[in-house]
């Protein structure tokens, strides 16, 4: 393929909800651009971002190969705040250059050889172009029809050739990769995810990142009464999720001794909720230290005994910070589908020794009374214990 006829490979990004945010838009766009730059840092490429109306163009250094441009587009599919990522060609702003690029773009394609139906869709962000969108559609479509003999189908084409006339150049492309949608990470502040090794909490983290929260991760391990396995698992999960935000931090609290104290307090059926409240109190203390404004859990209503309405009420009572539960109304199958799509399911399904199994009672209370829980906490001095646990925090930074 002669690159010269096609111009320069570049990547065109379509912004999601950001477009709708009125006065905050500039701030959103700046955040999104920063996130895109951060995501591309690992490529070592010197990229040039250009903000247009509802679109960001990524210009790559001269001579960048098509493969590298494809890799850049692929990497950007993980950055929240974008709905479409197009590997495009940047061509000169003349009808002739556009037509030539469109012809070149379809050369040698299997579907073109098969004779797919097609349509040309032009859009002008800059109206100072000699042709209207419709005229451009016709001119390019006519040429493609003549050269390749493809049938035009405006309603339901199998192949769409997209043309976007911009201020300084024209972009030509076919197809595209769906983005994450949602909002740029960081635009909604910071949250702290209570991260088990299970299936749900990584999905909850993903959901909140996609709503613009930057998240830190907090894992409670059963150490010293369990191995470090659950930490490795949490670490692997954080690494898998890091592609959505970058710079992720995992915090680990050795929780085994505190669990033993809860167990020793005798109230077997309340142990699970008492432990969950202590986790939340500790998480709240950690959140204050890292300036997070919310706690996030993977709770889903009714999934397990700790997730009845009464028990969720008892958990909310333990802390002042809001507890966000993005999975509350989802079925397990829906959660698993997301886990599979974001690449965490296989990690979550690895065996481990979760700290929670240390105190699995024969029958867990499904309607815990807050007064009873407060009794246990008084004996434990839970507020002080939560501070001590937060003091024992260990940070695991992602390498590289
Ligand atoms: P998950 O799949 O996320 O483990 P689950 O269905 O197993 O959830 P629970 O074990 O009741 O449900 O946990 C509910 C939530 O409590 C989890 O989603 C997580 O946010 C938090 N949590 C549970 N165990 C831990 C832990 N060891 N460390 C940190 N958070 C935890
Ligand atoms: Mg669990």
From TrEMBL:
Enzyme Commission number(s) of this protein: 2.8.1.4
Pathway listed: Cofactor biosynthesis; thiamine diphosphate biosynthesis
Compartments where found: Cytoplasm
RNA-binding found in the keyword field: yes
Binding positions for ATP per the UniProt entry: 194-195, 219-220, 276, 298, 307
GO molecular function terms noted in the UniProt entry: ATP binding; CCA tRNA nucleotidyltransferase activity; tRNA binding; tRNA-uracil-4 sulfurtransferase activity
CDD domains named in the record: PPase_ThiI, THUMP_ThiI
Gene3D superfamilies per record: 3.30.2130.30, HUPs
GO terms under cellular component: cytosol
Highest taxon of source: Bacteria
Keyword RNA-binding: yes
Record's function text: Catalyzes the ATP-dependent transfer of a sulfur to tRNA to produce 4-thiouridine in position 8 of tRNAs, which functions as a near-UV photosensor. Also catalyzes the transfer of sulfur to the sulfur carrier protein ThiS, forming ThiS-thiocarboxylate. This is a step in the synthesis of thiazole, in the thiamine biosynthesis pathway. The sulfur is donated as persulfide by IscS.
HAMAP family: ThiI
Protein name per Swiss-Prot or TrEMBL: Probable tRNA sulfurtransferase
């Amino acid at each position: 393929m002669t690159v010269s006829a096609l111009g320069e490979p570049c990547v065109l990004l379509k912004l999601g909800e950001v477009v709708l945010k009125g006065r905050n838009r500039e701030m959103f766009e700046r955040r999104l651009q920063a996130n895109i730059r951060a995501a591309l840092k690992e490529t070592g490429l010197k990229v040039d971002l250009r903000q247009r109306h509802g679109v960001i163009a990524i210009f790559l250094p001269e001579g960048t190969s098509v493969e590298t441009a494809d890799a850049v587009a692929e990497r950007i599919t993980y950055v929240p705040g974008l709905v479409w990522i197009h590997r495009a060609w940047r061509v000169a702003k003349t009808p002739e250059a556009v037509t030539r690029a469109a012809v070149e773009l379809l050369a040698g394609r299997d579907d073109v050889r098969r004779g797919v139906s097609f349509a040309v869709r032009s859009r002008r962000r800059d109206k100072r172009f000699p042709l209207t969108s419709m005229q451009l559609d016709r001119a390019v479509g006519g040429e493609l029809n003549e050269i390749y003999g493809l049938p035009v189908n405006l309603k339901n084409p199998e192949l769409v050739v997209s043309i976007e006339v911009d201020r300084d150049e024209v972009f030509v492309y076919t197809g595209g990769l769906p983005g994450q949608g949602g909002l740029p990470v960081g635009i909604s502040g910071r949250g702290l995810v209570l991260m088990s090794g299970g299936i749900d909490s990584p999905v909850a983290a993903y959901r909140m990142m996609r709503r613009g929260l930057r998240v830190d991760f907090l894992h409670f391990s059963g150490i010293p009464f369990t191995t470090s396995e659950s930490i490795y698992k949490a670490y692997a999960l954080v690494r898998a999720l890091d592609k959505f935000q970058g710079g992720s931090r995992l915090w680990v609290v050795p929780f085994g001794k505190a669990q033993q104290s809860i167990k020793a307090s005798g109230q077997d059926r309340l142990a699970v909720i008492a432990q969950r409240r202590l986790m939340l109190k500790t998480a709240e203390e950690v959140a204050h230290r890292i300036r997070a404004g919310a706690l996030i859990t993977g709770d889903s209503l009714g999934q397990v005994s700790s997730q009845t309405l009464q028990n969720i009420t008892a958990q909310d009572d333990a802390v002042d910070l809001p507890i966000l539960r993005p999975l509350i109304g989802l079925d397990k199958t829906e959660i698993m589908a997301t886990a599979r799509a974001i690449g965490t399911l296989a990690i979550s399904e690895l065996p481990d020794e979760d700290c929670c199994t240390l105190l699995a009672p024969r029958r867990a209370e499904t309607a815990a009374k807050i007064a009873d829980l407060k009794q246990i906490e008084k004996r434990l001095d839970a507020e002080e214990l939560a501070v001590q646990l937060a003091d024992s925090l260990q940070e695991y930074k992602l390498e590289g």
